[in-house]
Amino acid sequence: MKTTTSLVSEDGVLITQLFEENRELVSIQSIPSHVQEAFVAIEDSRFREHQGIDIRSIGRALYRDIVARQAVEGGSTITQQLAKNVFLTNEKTLLRKTKEVAIAMNLERRYSKDEILEMYLNQIYFGHGAYGIQAAAELYFNKDVSELSIEEGALLAGLPKAPNSYSPFNDLNKSKQRRDLVLTVMQRQGYLNAEEMVRLQGKTVAIERAEQQDIEPYLTYIDMVIDEAEQRYHLSNEELLTGGYEIVVPMSPSIQVDSFEKMAQSSYFPAEDQQAEAAFVLMDNHTGGVLAVHGGREYVRRGLNRVNVKRQPGSTLKPLAVYAPALEKGYHPYSLLTDELIEYDGYTPRNYNGEYTGEMTMYDALTYSANAPAVWLLNEIGVQESINSLERFGLDVSDRGLAIALGGLTEGLSPFEIVSSYRVFANEGKKTDPYFITAIYSRSGDRIGEANTSEENVIKPQTAWDITRMLEAVVQEGTGKSGEVQSALAGKTGTTSYTEVSGATRDAWFVGYTPTVVGGVWMGYDTTNESNYFHGGSSYPTILFKDIINDLPSNLTATSFTKPNNVKELETPIALTEINDLTATLAIGGRGLMSIRLNWTGSDDDRIHYTIYEVGKSGRKEIATVVGANEYFIPSLNPFSQKTYEIVPYNTQIDREGVTSNQATVKFQLGFH
């Protein structure tokens, strides 16, 4: 029999059911005797005595057929009905009837009466998509079959003859009349006494229709479960929908529904793009189990799944294609990269703001998504090194040009691929195949498959940690700072342009991770053209992603990333501030009888050194280097000489001097304070 397959969360909660026929098999022991008696009474009063066919019923039916001059009554036993439902059609011919009798008699030889009745009650149709007694009990009374009362069992027993006509949902009065007839027949056959019959017939039909689950938020997830069941466990779509499997999935129903509702809201999209599409996927950092997924804002079952559609990834590819392999080759987050407008054999990458600083740290280049340094660095490490790195991340890219650094790919990558790759950064450099099915069990309870959670090292834990810290900076002060987020978050934005229209966007991205989850949002149109393009940038998917993260269940929230034991912490970047308030005063005291006091507004960061210069006609002379202070005393033997000083801050992190301060000429001051 076709049996309902159940999707169950990892903590055992039923999420939804998949079926061609909504049927849940139950044993005869689970069906109360008064429910069994109701069906026997109305369908086959001599069920316990005959051997598959009832001669009396056949004779009565034959007589009525002759009178009507056509086949009007079946006269079938419960065993015959089971034979017809399982093996035959509903046509009323002598040949079909002969087959039905033969099969029924064979069934009686092979199975006990209880087994036949059990199969019958699990097989028959009760209307409104409910097959079998258990599905019917849940549909009409919202209870398990074992909890059915006598009058409820009688109502269900009256349905199979004409489910639509006798359905209490369609006609309550007709349903009650049919129920009362069943109770009358039960009394005639000794299952009830007259007093019980009258009392039960006096009851109103009290139905409690089971609330119909809105499965629209689950459609993408269901389809991807079906796909994985076929690809990994070789179960066809039909087999999955009819086989009565229990499929344990890593889905978080609350995230699945919440993200579905947020994606549908117009406020997360530009006013001009209310018809724009989006895709979203969220995975568990540690296991790779998919917590939530949506292939579109109004996803159609077995339709276009945008989670799997390849798009231009833009700058979301930079950490994967450039910065991770560079760190693996010995570069450091504070290594200096060339930030200039350079032509590479006809290819000239440009920064989005049109500004170039000459050189820039990797940290800043990633934080502010500068293009020129990324391409320069890819050229330095070599395209093949990048391709090898992408392959280790599980990405197959056919391109071999420097445009890879900026996500300029011929075919593109899907949101699912990008998010799966970012999980390596979130999981200490290790890769695991993502999955939708944690485990799958047969109808009999045997486990027939489970997810492969074995891990593979892709990059060093130190590389993963450095990338994480840099991607945190992207969110806190760089291109990913739009919106608010309560959780610790590392991530990268990406925007690809539609060059036919000035300022138009083809693909807008945000991909990121917290200490517990990794995910991404893509926004855009299925087809981009001059009249159909995205009017916003990466801020829109960034805000949507952050709002989803803000509403994660409490067990998935975390305010900070935990540094693995085997890695070094990444220093925060040194920020050199321009010194324009240097003063030089001559007074009594200090380091001698007379001293020159240099004073300036400095930084609390002891990693900044200040080099003091005396400036004269012949140039400048280094006087001293100050660390951890913002003043310096110079002994003076000649109070009447006019001297000028300046200070140059020095960044020890990148071995570079900052901007020279203003020049200060000595002025006289009475005493020091």
From TrEMBL:
This is PBP1A family penicillin-binding protein. GO terms for cellular component: outer membrane-bounded periplasmic space. Residues 279-549 form the Penicillin-binding protein transpeptidase domain. Residues 13-187 form the Glycosyl transferase family domain. The keyword Glycosyltransferase applies. In the C-terminal section; belongs to the transpeptidase family. It comes from the Bacteria. Keywords: Carboxypeptidase, Cell membrane, Cell shape, Cell wall biogenesis/degradation, Glycosyltransferase, Hydrolase, Membrane, Multifunctional enzyme, Peptidoglycan synthesis, Protease, Transferase, Transmembrane, Transmembrane helix. It catalyses: [GlcNAc-(1->4)-Mur2Ac(oyl-L-Ala-gamma-D-Glu-L-Lys-D-Ala-D-Ala)](n)-di-trans,octa-cis-undecaprenyl diphosphate + beta-D-GlcNAc-(1->4)-Mur2Ac(oyl-L-Ala-gamma-D-Glu-L-Lys-D-Ala-D-Ala)-di-trans,octa-cis-undecaprenyl diphosphate = [GlcNAc-(1->4)-Mur2Ac(oyl-L-Ala-gamma-D-Glu-L-Lys-D-Ala-D-Ala)](n+1)-di-trans,octa-cis-undecaprenyl diphosphate + di-trans,octa-cis-undecaprenyl diphosphate + H(+); Preferential cleavage: (Ac)2-L-Lys-D-Ala-|-D-Ala. Also transpeptidation of peptidyl-alanyl moieties that are N-acyl substituents of D-alanine. GO terms for biological process: cell wall organization; peptidoglycan biosynthetic process; proteolysis; regulation of cell shape. It comes from Halalkalibacter suaedae. Pfam families: Transgly, Transpeptidase. The lineage of its organism: Bacteria, Bacillati, Bacillota, Bacilli, Bacillales. One of its GO terms (molecular function) is penicillin binding. InterPro entries: Beta-lactam/transpept-like (IPR012338), Glyco_trans_51 (IPR001264), Glycosyltr_51/Transpeptidase (IPR050396), Ig-like_fold (IPR013783), Lysozyme-like_dom_sf (IPR023346), PBP_transglycosylase (IPR036950), PCN-bd_Tpept (IPR001460).
